[in-house]
Specification:
Elements (H helix, E strand, L loop, with lengths): L6 E4 L13 H9 L2 E3 L12 H22 L5 H8 L2 E2 L5 H7 L9 H10 L3 E6 L5 H10 L8 E4 L10 H11 L7 E5 L2 H10 L3 E4 L19 E2 L6 H5 L4
Helix pairs in contact: 1-2, 1-4, 2-3
Length: 243
């Protein structure tokens, strides 16, 4: 194992994938395609306007991500529909998946970076705030040829907490088999969830500064990163003094 670093753990969106501005109205319409009924109704929801469901789902998304920001409470896609008061068929989420798929491409710099870290005896981890199932995220890594380079990964849809809860970071450490947060580095694009959160958990934190974080997604605190990576390729040089 390399000197003073056991593992480097990465955020996903905006870090391993490049930041994209997203049309959240279009996202809500794609989600609404999976609605099958309003709980308590006697008939199909197909007679109700798609826009009505989309608005309810958009508002529900604001609520569940607000709970993540303010209370570090995790959610799933099913929780999103429940919050909106709508029933859905998971088999009908294809439009939603297809909406997001163009935004999921792994940065081409990831593979050589992860290969280099692992060659130096440093474990590679992923910790993502997400409502999506593990199978989607692992599928993106498999599609892009990097799934075999991940030593451990945690998706908050599977655990009770989201970043910046220290419990979420502890779960990621457990996943990669790391025992000492002081020997772990977290890499992310958000100064609250990723930098402040990792530092509160006892880790060093590197910031990827290219994402435009909406004001409603920013938390009440910001960490001062231990380093700034303007490119993923900068990471080995940034962590070298800590080895």
């Amino acid at each position: 194992m390399a000197g003073g670093i056991e593992a480097v753990i990465f955020d996903w969106g905006g870090t391993l994938t490049r930041w994209h501005d997203v049309d959240f109205h279009a996202e809500s319409l794609a989600l609404a395609a999976a609605v099958v009924a309003t709980p308590g109704s006697s008939g199909s929801s197909a007679v109700e306007p798609l826009e009505t469901h989309a608005r309810a789902l958009h508002d529900a998304g604001s609520s569940i991500w607000g709970r993540s920001r303010d209370h570090q409470q995790s959610s799933t896609i099913a929780d999103l529909f429940a919050e909106a008061g709508l029933e859905h068929d998971p088999e009908l989420l294809g439009a939603y998946y297809d909406f997001w798929e163009p935004h999921t491409e792994t940065d081409p710099a990831v593979r050589p970076l992860w290969e280099s870290l692992r060659a130096d005896g440093i474990r590679v981890g992923v910790l993502s705030n997400t409502i999506w199932p593990r199978s989607w995220h692992r599928g993106f890594f498999e599609r892009d040829g990097v799934d075999h380079l991940v030593d451990g990964d945690v998706y908050t849809s599977e655990i009770p907490w989201t970043k910046p809860s220290p419990h979420a970071f502890a779960a990621a450490m457990d996943a990669v088999g790391a025992s000492d947060p002081a020997r772990c580095v977290y890499v992310g694009d958000r100064l609250y969830d990723d930098v402040w959160g990792a530092q509160q958990a006892g880790m060093r934190a590197l910031h990827i500064p290219h994402s435009t974080i909406p004001s409603e997604q920013r938390g009440p605190a910001e960490g001062a990163p231990d380093g700034v990576a303007t490119r993923l390729q900068d990471i080995p040089a940034l962590i070298a003094p800590w080895l």
